[in-house]
Design brief:
The structure holds two protein chains of two kinds. By secondary structure, chain A is of the alpha/beta class. Helix content of chain A is 36%, strand content 20%. In chain A, the strands form three sheets. Chain A has a nine-stranded mixed sheet, sandwiched between helices. A five-stranded mixed sheet of chain A has the order 12-13-16-14-15, sandwiched between helices. Chain A has a two-stranded antiparallel sheet with strand order 7-8. In chain A, a hairpin with a 2-residue loop joins strand 7 and strand 8. Chain A is globular, with a radius of gyration of 23 Å. The termini of chain A are far apart. Chain B is α/β, with parallel strands linked by helices. Chain B has a single domain, classed as Class I glutamine amidotransferase (GATase) domain (Rossmann fold, 3-Layer(aba) Sandwich), CATH 3.40.50.880. Chain B is 29% helix and 29% strand. A six-stranded mixed sheet of chain B has the order 2-1-3-4-14-13. In chain B, strands 8, 9, 11, 12 and 15 form a five-stranded antiparallel sheet that branches. A four-stranded mixed sheet of chain B has the order 6-5-7-10, with no helix packed on it. The longest helix of chain B is centred in the C-terminal third of the chain and has 16 residues. The termini of chain B are far apart. The chains are: A alpha/beta, B alpha/beta. At the A-B interface, helix 7, helix 8, helix 13 and helix 14 of A face helix 1, helix 2 and helix 6 of B.
C-alpha cells in the first residue's frame, strides 16, 4: 500500500515517542504503536514488512513457544525481529515494527516472529499476511473478551489469508481444522502411558462432530479436548500427523519425534505435559521451516523455559513453587492443578489468579471457576487451599462444590494473610499460583512465607 | 424429581454448568437427564420437573433452533402449563421471534415476541444488581447481543444497577409462569442463595442449601460490592478493561474512595 504523508508523520511521531520513553527509562512497549495507529489507522497495512512473517498463536503456550523458537534461532546465528518484550496485539506488533525500522520505515530484518493474540485477528490479519501461522491450541479462554472458541475460530477463518501455511496441533481438532483451504503441517504427541491415568476434565470444547453432531469417538483423550478422535458417522477426525512425538523418556528427559526425515531424539526442557507440547511445537516448526536436526537439537540442549512462569525455591526444607495459572483461563488452571497433584507430596495451594483491574475497581465474573477442575484438588496431597483476594469466598464455594473438605479451604482477603494461613507443620510444598498481572501480590505472599519459614528456623 | 438438561455438549459456556453442579448438591436424589443434539428431548414424551439450558456459541444457537423447532408447540404447552424452565445466557434467544446478525435474520421459535441483535464488534460485559420477588438478584452479563421488544409484563428482574434486555430498559430477562429466561450468568444459582431457595420451593423440594454458610458469605460480599457506587458495573468488551471515566464526578468518587481507604 502507498505510503502517505500521514503514514510518515505517524511513523516519525511514534519513533519520537519511543525515544522519549527510552530516555525516561520506561518500557511503554505498545505506546509508540498505539500512537501510530491513532494517527494512521491503517498503519500496519502501510509499514513495510520483513520478507518473511511468522505468527505464533494459540490459547495456551504461545509465549513459551515463540520464546523457544527465538532462542533456537539466536543460537544458530539467525537474526530476526520479534515482539518478545512487547504486546501481542496490533499496537504491540506496530511498536515492534517501528522499533525495527529505519527512519523511512524500512525493516532492518528479513524475518519476523510475532506472538499473536487470536482476538486481535480482525485488527492484524487484514494487514499482516503471515507466511506461516503456527497455532498451539484453541480452547475457551477469557470469556469476557474471547467469548467462546467458535467465535475465535470464526474471526481467524474470516481474516487468515489462504496463502498462509499452517503449522497446527493435530491433537487439537479445533486448531487443526482452522482455515480448511490452507496448506497445513500437523504436529502431535502419540498416546503416552501417562494418558491412561488422565483425570477426566469438566469441559471439552468439542464433543460432537461439527458436521453431523454425532458424538466423537476418542482414540485417546489427553486433557480437555486434546487427544485424537474421529466421527463414527462421517469423515471428520484427526488429520495425519507429520511430526509425531512417539515416546518420552522422563528419566533421561528426552523425547523421540517421528519426522518426514526419520526418527529424531531431542532434549525435553521441562517435566510437564505442556512443556512437552511447547517443545514439540517449536521443534516441528523449525524442522519444517528448514533448520537441520543438529541445528535444532544442539540449540535445544542449551534452551530453558521462561522462569517467570514457573520457579521453584527451597527454603528451610520447604519447596515454594511460583507458578503462572492464567486467570479467566480454565484449561491453563486445570493443567496446573493436574501438575500439582501429579507431583504429590504434602501441598498448600495459594491461589491468586484474580483479575487485578476488577479487584481494584469492579467485581470479577467468576463463571470461569466452574470450568476449572477444582475436583483435582480433592486429592489427599492437597492439605490446604488458600484462595486470595476479593473473590476468595467465591473460590471457597467452588472448592466446596468440587468436594473439598471445608477444613482444608481457608479464604484470605490479602496476600499477607494467605502466607500467614499456611500450616508449615503440615505441608512441605507451597504453590503460589498467580495470574499475569498479580505477580507483585504473589511476590508479597512469597516474601511473607519466606520470612515465616526463616523465623521458624531461627527459633529452632 | 427429573431435571432435563438440553444439549450440554453445546450449551455449556461461561461456567453455567455450575448451576447444575449446585442443583445436584442441593437435590442429591434428583435424576439429571442430559439430552444430546441428536436425541429426542425427554419433555416430548414424559413430564419433567425442570428444563435447563445454558449459554452457547452463536453457531450452536442455530443448531438448537433447528433441533427445537419441531418441539415448538410442546414447549409452548409446557410453558403455559407451568413447567419450570431455567434458560441462562443467550439460551433464551432461541425462543425469540428472531435473531438479527447484520443483514441476516435467523427465525427463532417465536414463543416470545422479542428480537436479539448481535454485534460482534462490541461485546457487552457488565454486572447486575436487581430485584426479583423482593429478593436481591446479582449476576453478570457477557454477550454479543441486546434484546428488543416489550417484556414489561413478563420480565424476570428489575435492575437497580446494570442493564435489562438492552441499555434502555432496566427490565431483565423473561418470566412467564414458571419459565425463567435470563441473560445473567455467573452461575446464577450459585451466586444467589435466596433465589436458589425460591427455585427449590417451586420444585417442591426442601429449601435447604448445600454449603449454606459459604454461599451466604460469598453472596453478602458481592452484594456489598455491587451496592457500592464506586464499583464499576461495566467493562469494555474488546479489551476486557474497565471503561475510563474522565468526568469530574468520577474524579470526585475516586478521591472519596482514596479517603475511605486511608
Amino acid at each position: 500500500m502507498k505510503r502517505t504523508f500521514r503514514f510518515y508523520f505517524a511513523l516519525f511521531f511514534a519513533k519520537c515517542t519511543a525515544l522519549a520513553l527510552k530516555l525516561i527509562g520506561r518500557k511503554g512497549t505498545s505506546m509508540p504503536g498505539s500512537w501510530a495507529i491513532i494517527l494512521c489507522p491503517d498503519f500496519l497495512a502501510r509499514i513495510p514488512l520483513p520478507e518473511q512473517v511468522i505468527l505464533v498463536a494459540g490459547t495456551n503456550g504461545k509465549t513459551t513457544v515463540a520464546n523457544l523458537i527465538e532462542d533456537i534461532l539466536s543460537q544458530n546465528g539467525i537474526e530476526y525481529l520479534c515482539n518478545r518484550d512487547g504486546a501481542n496485539v496490533n499496537t504491540g506488533l506496530a511498536s515492534s515494527l517501528i522499533a525495527d525500522s529505519t527512519f523511512f520505515g524500512k525493516p532492518k530484518h528479513k524475518l519476523a516472529i510475532f506472538e499473536f493474540d487470536e482476538r486481535s485477528a480482525p485488527l492484524i490479519l487484514p494487514y499482516i499476511k503471515p507466511d506461516t501461522f503456527l497455532c498451539t491450541n484453541l480452547c475457551r479462554d477469557a470469556l469476557d473478551r474471547n467469548a467462546n472458541v467458535d467465535f475465535i475460530v470464526q474471526i481467524l477463518n474470516e481474516n487468515l489469508w489462504d496463502g498462509a501455511k499452517l503449522v497446527v496441533n493435530g491433537d487439537d481438532l479445533i486448531a487443526s481444522h482452522l482455515a480448511p483451504g490452507n496448506k497445513r503441517v500437523c504436529f502431535g504427541i502419540r498416546e503416552l502411558p501417562r494418558d491412561r491415568e488422565a483425570r477426566p476434565n469438566l469441559v471439552r470444547d468439542i464433543v460432537a462432530c461439527p458436521k453431523c453432531d454425532t458424538s466423537l469417538q476418542y482414540d485417546f483423550l489427553r486433557y480437555n479436548h486434546i487427544g485424537r478422535a474421529h466421527c463414527p458417522n462421517c469423515d471428520y477426525g484427526t488429520f495425519p500427523i507429520d511430526y509425531d512425538c512417539t515416546s518420552v523418556d522422563m528419566d533421561a528427559m528426552r523425547f523421540t519425534l517421528r519426522t518426514p526425515q526419520g526418527e529424531e531424539v531431542y532434549r525435553l526442557p521441562g517435566e510437564n505435559i505442556t512443556d512437552l507440547y511447547n517443545t514439540v511445537t517449536a521443534v516441528s516448526f523449525l524442522r519444517d521451516w528448514g533448520l537441520t536436526y543438529d541445528q535444532v537439537s544442539t540449540a535445544l540442549d542449551k534452551a530453558e523455559l521462561a522462569r517467570s512462569r514457573y520457579d521453584v525455591e527451597t527454603v528451610g526444607g520447604k519447596e515454594i513453587v511460583f507458578c503462572l495459572a492464567k486467570g479467566q483461563s480454565p484449561i491453563a488452571s486445570s493443567r496446573v492443578f493436574d501438575f500439582i497433584v501429579q507431583r504429590g507430596g504434602r501441598a498448600a495451594v495459594i491461589i491468586m489468579n484474580y483479575d487485578m483491574h476488577d479487584q481494584a475497581h469492579s467485581s470479577e465474573n467468576i463463571g470461569w471457576l466452574y470450568e476449572v477442575d477444582y475436583e483435582f484438588l480433592t486429592d489427599g496431597c492437597v492439605k490446604q487451599l488458600i484462595p486470595t483476594g476479593n473473590r476468595c469466598y467465591d473460590y471457597q464455594v467452588r472448592a466446596l462444590l468440587a468436594g473439598m473438605k471445608p477444613a482444608r479451604v481457608h479464604p484470605a482477603q490479602r496476600p499477607e494473610e494467605a502466607a500467614a494461613l499456611v500450616d508449615l507443620e503440615q505441608v512441605d510444598k507451597v504453590y503460589i499460583l498467580h495470574a499475569v498481572f498479580t505477580v507483585p501480590d504473589a511476590k508479597r505472599a512469597r516474601e511473607e512465607l519466606v520470612k515465616r519459614i526463616e523465623k521458624g528456623r531461627a527459633l529452632t | 424429581m427429573k431435571i432435563e438438561v438440553l444439549f450440554p455438549e453445546y450449551a455449556n459456556l461461561f461456567g453455567d454448568m455450575g448451576n447444575l453442579l449446585y442443583l445436584k448438591a442441593c437435590l442429591p436424589d434428583a435424576e439429571f437427564i442430559e439430552t444430546a443434539m441428536n436425541d429426542t428431548p425427554r419433555f416430548m414424551d414424559e413430564p419433567v420437573d425442570l428444563i435447563y439450558m445454558g449459554p452457547m456459541s452463536e453457531p450452536a444457537q442455530e443448531k438448537v433452533i433447528a433441533r427445537l423447532m419441531p418441539c415448538k408447540e410442546k414447549l409452548r404447552e409446557l410453558i403455559e402449563g407451568g413447567t419450570c424452565f431455567l434458560f441462562t445466557g443467550n439460551a433464551v434467544e432461541v425462543l425469540y421471534r428472531e435473531i438479527e446478525d447484520g443483514n441476516r435474520k435467523i427465525p427463532g421459535l417465536g414463543l416470545f415476541d422479542l428480537t436479539a441483535k448481535r454485534n460482534f464488534v462490541h461485546r457487552h460485559n457488565s454486572n447486575f444488581l436487581g430485584k426479583f420477588e423482593g429478593m436481591d438478584i446479582v449476576g453478570c452479563k457477557s454477550q454479543f447481543t441486546m434484546a428488543y421488544g416489550d417484556n414489561a409484563q413478563m420480565y424476570f428482574a428489575k435492575a437497580e444497577r446494570g442493564i435489562g434486555l438492552n441499555r434502555d430498559t432496566p427490565l431483565e430477562g423473561i418470566r412467564k409462569n414458571n419459565f425463567i429466561g435470563t441473560y445473567l450468568v455467573g452461575p446464577l444459582l450459585v451466586m444467589n442463595p435466596p433465589f436458589m431457595r425460591w427455585l427449590l420451593t417451586l420444585l417442591g423440594a426442601e429449601p435447604s442449601l448445600a454449603y449454606n454458610d459459604a454461599m451466604e458469605q460469598a453472596y453478602a460480599q458481592r452484594l456489598k460490592e455491587f451496592r457500592d457506587p464506586l464499583v464499576h458495573m461495566e467493562k469494555e468488551g474488546d479489551t476486557n478493561q474497565l471503561k475510563i471515566d474522565f468526568s469530574p464526578k468520577a474524579w470526585l468518587n475516586s478521591l472519596k474512595s482514596k479517603r475511605n481507604q486511608s
